[in-house]
Amino acid sequence: MSLNEIKEVTYFKLNNEINRPINGQIPLHKDKEALEAFYKENVEPNTKKFASISEKMEWLIEQDYIEKPFIRKYSSTFIEKLYSFLAEQNFQFKSFMAAYKFYSQYALKTNDGAYYLETIEDRVAFNALYFADGNEELALDIANEMIHQRYQPATPSFLNAGRKRRGELVSCFLIQVTDDMNSIGRSINSALQLSRIGGGVGISLSNLREAGSAIKGYEGAASGVVPVMKLFEDSFSYSNQLGQRQGAGVVYLSVFHPDIIHFLSAKKENADEKIRVKTLSLGVTVPDKFYELVRKNEYMYLFSPYSVEREYGVPFNYLDITKEYDNLVLNPNIRKTKILARDLENEISKLQQESGYPYIVNIDTANRANAIDGKIVMSNLCSEILQVQKTSVLNDAQEYVEMGTDVSCNLGSTNVVNLMDSSDFGKSVRTMVRALTFVTDSSQIEAVPSIKKGNNEAHTFGLGAMGLHTYFAKNHMFYGSPESVEFTSIYFMLLNYWTLVESKNIAKERNQTFVGFEQSKYATGEYFDKYLTDEFSPKSNKVKEIFKDIFVPTAEDWAELKKEIQTHGLYHQNRLAVAPNGSISYINDTSASIHPITQRVEERQEKKIGKIYYPAAYLANDTMAYYTSAYDMDMRKVIDVYAAATEHVDQGLSLTLFMRSEIPRGIYEWKSDTKQTTRDLNILRNYAFYKGVKSIYYVRTFTDDGDEVGANQCESCVI
């Protein structure tokens, strides 16, 4: 029997019985029965067997399933030792969903799809061997972190590591367009190439002149950003990895761009087909000045990027709108239009209710926290990547006269529950940094030179987290409670500390820093000021107890680290970012990212096979009360948790707002009825801004008929 011949199975039926309460109780044991049946009926009879590890390795290499060079960096004796170590850990998936997801989406299969060629131990082994690049000690350390599910590489890395026929290891990309046809043409080609490679592509269009602007003296000749959006959407539809997945992209526009209303209208359901974008995601960059104008209920001016660049000598993206706003208004050389700020605020909320878009990037907030010389101008497809970029200058042959820098995103996640149980928290995080460093070092995106240059100079990655709500429930903390906020702050402070330590260690070993370190706030020491008191030490008894056996750096420890970094530098320009990581969290048997769960027993519609039910990790009588659905929660609690993490994260966090079309009474004090309104979203976005949140990803709305508006689409970051 092969996978292609499986017909009579019991595991789907057993899993579905979770949804049928018995005497008011969820029959969680049915999921364990489904898991056992899945192994017995599916995995065991359909996994190709080998007499030894050596025989398996040679066969996989000969048949072009696994790359030869990285395997040959190790002796067969060491590989046997690694496999013995993994076997001794006696890894077991804890849920049917976890095992099903791994074997259906991640395990290597024969070319005809008939047999499995990998177990979880195999995939972990190949990841460890690949990322360690011949270092036996590091390979064992990475394997140790992964098999105990303290560390989870992002899907592109986890899935592709070691495979002969594979995509890229990085998750997504960021590029920006300047105000000329050469840049537009080159960017469309870049989008095609990057979408083919894999991962989502973020594109900033803020520098483009608005519709109706002059081109070489011809007034009204410019078509604006919407036709360019359509070109990018068509590019992603065409370049879809041989039909395996829809190409995915997001376009960002400044809230002060004259085309902002047309930009938002292109996503509306009733938009004219000539301008409507169906699959392209939308994001808006929002300076502080917009919030001020909304608060004061004043008119706002929208400024022509062409006249701004001509007057100031920099592309529109690089002008500090908040600082220069009054000067721009008074300058007769700046072409401008006027709208009421609150009208635009309401348009944003209406579209978020209808589609979940646009993403919001509080661009001044991001830049205030930025320790790197330069400016952040946009984000990625999931709104967690916030890195400085430099524009490129092209000639008429679309060759680089001056090459700027763009961004590739290299992601991984800690599993909060399991990392908190590590015997050495610091060593665990430092091992993760080493694994992520290999990915950034080995990534060479030749098709887009500005991406390659940015990666080679910055060596960035984004280590994040999953399972925060699971940890709260397991330890009897309500999501958004003071203790949960305090825990979140300290946890991410520890990630910050240890990634800095290891980045400094690598810089010292290699005698190399990221380009521009000398101009950074790390070099001046300014970055460390907030840590030179014991402000972030545990305060409540609950959190003190949690961290009693875990090293928490004091002000003196931070002062010492500051001195060492000023001496030796940092290898990585950026280190932390929290992605949505949806499906891959199931493999880890934990809640996704750091947001709350949506259901205690989640119902997922899987392609071809129907519904699968996933009970929240550690769901039991004593944890049930702590698993409040995100849709039944005051979103200010979610914002508070994200704000606590943001304090320590040098990039961003994919913050999703979960709303109901009919909001339960009593959640928000300003509401007298239950109907969700634009005012609700306006208030929450402003609350997030004042709490220091850098970005808002989707607004997901649970409707009366059980649908979800604004469901995740960014597969490369989500899974």
What's this model, at a glance?
Pfam families: Ribonuc_red_lgC, Ribonuc_red_lgN, RNR_N. With 719 residues, the chain is of the alpha/beta class.
Instruction: Determine the structural class based on helices, strands and strand pairing.
Output: alpha/beta
Mean of residue pLDDT values: 93
CATH topology of the domain at 172-407: Anaerobic Ribonucleotide-triphosphate Reductase Large Chain
Sum up the overall morphology in one term.
globular
- CATH class category label of the domain at 172-407: Alpha Beta
Instruction: Work out the helicity level.
Output: 40-55%
Through-space gap between termini? 30 Å
Radius of gyration, whole Å? 25 Å
Give, in spatial order, the strands making up the sheet with the most strands.
Answer: 11-2-3-4-5-8-17
Biggest beta sheet summary = 7 strands, mixed
CATH architecture of the domain at 172-407: Alpha-Beta Barrel
